[in-house]
């Protein structure tokens, strides 16, 4: 078989969706058969992704790879067009990894298991498609496709306020999607040619006012998903009512769609507008970091505390995207992958703790570490990763963003000092609220009422395996970041050069530096 021409991305998108359609035909009453079926499908799809990555993906190539294009509506130049580059390939692999582990995390689900795993597999294909498609209209359709399964998972398998949380989620995200549709149609029909192909659209010369409006619309749409203050309020409610698998998908993948789209479309396709909006992104990033860290510090509900922590960490992505440096944008990519792993691990631990204590309130816990030592150890490791302990991926990602922004020549030194100092406040608050959380859950005297009424069993092998699987890449990236950065370096360097060309002051500086470098060296009279 000619593996170079095999439709790898199309297969990995459609395979889990096609497999989901067969679930109603599986004879199964208690869900034990269908959960194994869903897990095997997820493992096969992830194996296909890994094989395609190792055999077909070239690190030195900054352009699209694994490209496939099939005509859909020829008159409008609509195509099933997919491909992967340095911006999408790491997130595609992250999607396969997290979704497969989320399927394993859903092992205890017994209520309507066929519907649940049908939605999980549909999500699998839809999420990969968001990162792979290269057609604007197709992007909008798959963006909407992945909203439906997570809405149903929230509204059917969520907590007491699940309908409120699911409705708020769909209103925010679907409302933001309207900006994507309007922006996609505007970009496609602008100019002399009608095309939805992202590469062709990126070459169009938009009028400045149109470009600014497009950027603002996309910023709202993707800011909801990232999430950016003040468009973030759906996330704590969604996490507050979600189950562990839904937590892992929300924190591990869905938030990364917003950051990816900002890089792919706002920065990559509208670079002149990005030069105008970049300081706003930096300010919003700082607000995210500080506001969400302070809010997380005040939360007494465990799920909401970790949810606000996620919002805080995603602020670093905004600062990195707006840094105009190779290091800053590389740090933003690394932060997305790192937080996907760390966020999934923390929310899985929240689910494990709730399954045993049946409470999310920190005031009702205490001393449970005496009976759940493995759970305590896993919580500690995941918390250390979240507070950016050196040797773990979060430390490297946040350091790259800090240094990348601090060394940027696109901003005033006073502005850079203010941003770095304020962002550092969030970095300082993170270990305070996470370590305080661990103390309240696991240390101190046991809550007698909790111990008497709940069976505080320690972690089972399945749970240990899931956390170990997440900690391996977290520690691996922390110790050797190049294992990930080499995947996207060529693409981010190319993107940074494009963005710097859109800033007049940086263009003038580059021209001046080039003139100086070409000038003949001066000769001192004493050497004549």
Could you describe the 3D structure shown?
The chain has helices spanning 8-21, 32-56, 89-105, 113-132, 136-145, 147-157, 162-189, 198-202, 208-225, 234-241, 244-269, 271-298, 302-321, 326-357, 373-386, 393-406, 413-442, 448-453, 461-479, 482-500, 504-518; strands spanning 65-73, 78-84. It is mainly alpha-helical and 528 residues long. It has a two-stranded antiparallel ribbon. The protein is globular, with a radius of gyration of 24 Å. The model has no long low-confidence stretch (mean pLDDT 89).
Structural key phrases:
single chain; 528 residues; mainly alpha; two-stranded antiparallel sheet; 3% strand
Major sheet description: 2 strands, antiparallel
Mean pLDDT: 89
Specify the overall morphology: globular
What gyration radius follows from the Cα positions, in whole Å?
24 Å
The residue ranges in which pLDDT falls below 50 over 5 or more consecutive positions are none
Considering DSSP H and I runs of 4 or more, what fraction of the residues is helical?
Answer: over 70%
Total beta strand runs: 2
Number of H- or I-type helical stretches: 21
- SSE class: mainly alpha
Distance between the termini: 71 Å
Beta-strand residue percentage = under 5%
Instruction: Provide the succession of SSEs.
Output: HHEEHHHHHHHHHHHHHHHHHHH
Kindly summarize this structure in a few lines.
The protein is mainly alpha-helical and 528 residues long.
Write the layout of secondary structure elements.
Elements: H1 8-21, H2 32-56, E1 65-73, E2 78-84, H3 89-105, H4 113-132, H5 136-145, H6 147-157, H7 162-189, H8 198-202, H9 208-225, H10 234-241, H11 244-269, H12 271-298, H13 302-321, H14 326-357, H15 373-386, H16 393-406, H17 413-442, H18 448-453, H19 461-479, H20 482-500, H21 504-518
């Amino acid at each position: 078989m000619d593996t170079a021409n095999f439709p790898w991305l199309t297969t990995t998108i459609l395979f889990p969706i096609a497999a989901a359609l067969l679930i109603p035909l599986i004879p199964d009453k208690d869900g034990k058969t269908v959960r194994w079926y869903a897990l095997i499908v997820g493992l096969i799809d992830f194996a296909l992704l890994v094989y395609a990555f190792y055999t077909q993906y070239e690190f030195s190539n900054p352009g699209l790879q694994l490209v496939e294009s099939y005509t859909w509506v020829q008159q409008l130049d609509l195509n099933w067009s997919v491909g992967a580059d340095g911006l999408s390939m790491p997130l595609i692999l992250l999607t396969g990894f997290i979704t497969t582990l989320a399927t394993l995390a859903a092992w205890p689900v017994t209520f309507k298991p066929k519907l649940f795993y049908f939605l999980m597999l549909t999500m699998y294909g839809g999420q990969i498609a968001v990162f792979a498609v290269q057609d604007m209209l197709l992007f909008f359709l798959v963006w909407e496709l992945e909203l439906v399964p997570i809405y149903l998972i929230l509204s059917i398998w969520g907590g007491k306020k699940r309908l409120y949380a699911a409705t708020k989620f769909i209103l925010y995200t679907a409302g933001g999607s309207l900006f994507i549709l309007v922006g996609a149609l505007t970009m496609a029909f602008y100019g002399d040619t009608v095309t939805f192909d992202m590469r062709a659209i990126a070459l169009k010369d938009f009028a400045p006012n149109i470009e600014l409006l497009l950027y603002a619309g996309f910023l709202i749409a993707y800011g909801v998903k990232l999430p950016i203050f003040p468009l973030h309020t759906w996330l704590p409610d969604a996490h507050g009512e979600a189950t562990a698998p839904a937590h892992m998908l929300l924190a591990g993948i869905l938030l990364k769609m917003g950051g990816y789209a900002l890089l792919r479309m706002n920065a990559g396709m509208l670079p002149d507008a990005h030069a105008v909006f970049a300081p706003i992104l930096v300010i919003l990033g700082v607000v995210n970091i500080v506001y969400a860290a302070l809010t997380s510090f005040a939360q007494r509900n465990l799920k909401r505390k970790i949810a606000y922590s996620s919002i805080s960490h995603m602020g670093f992505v905004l600062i990195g995207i707006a840094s105009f440096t190779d290091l800053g944008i590389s740090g933003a990519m690394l932060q997305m992958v790192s937080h996907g792993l760390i966020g999934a691990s923390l929310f899985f631990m929240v689910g494990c703790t709730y399954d045993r204590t049946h409470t999310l309130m920190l005031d009702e816990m205490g001393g449970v570490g005496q009976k759940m030592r493995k759970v305590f150890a896993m919580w500690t490791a995941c918390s250390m990763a979240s507070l950016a302990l050196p040797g773990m991926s979060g430390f490297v990602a946040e350091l790259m963003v800090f240094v990348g922004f601090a060394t940027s020549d696109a901003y005033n030194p006073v502005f850079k000092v203010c941003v770095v100092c304020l962002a550092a406040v969030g970095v300082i608050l993170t270990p305070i609220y996470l370590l305080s959380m661990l103390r309240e859950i696991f240390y101190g005297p046991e809550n007698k009422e909790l111990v008497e009424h709940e069976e505080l069993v320690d972690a089972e092998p399945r749970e240990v395996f899931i956390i170990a699987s997440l900690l391996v890449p977290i520690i691996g990236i922390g110790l050797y970041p190049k294992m990930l950065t080499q995947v996207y370096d060529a693409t981010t360097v190319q993107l940074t050069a494009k963005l710097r060309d859109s800033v007049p002051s940086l263009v003038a500086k580059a021209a001046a530096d080039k003139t100086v470098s070409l000038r003949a060296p001066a000769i001192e009279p004493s050497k004549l």
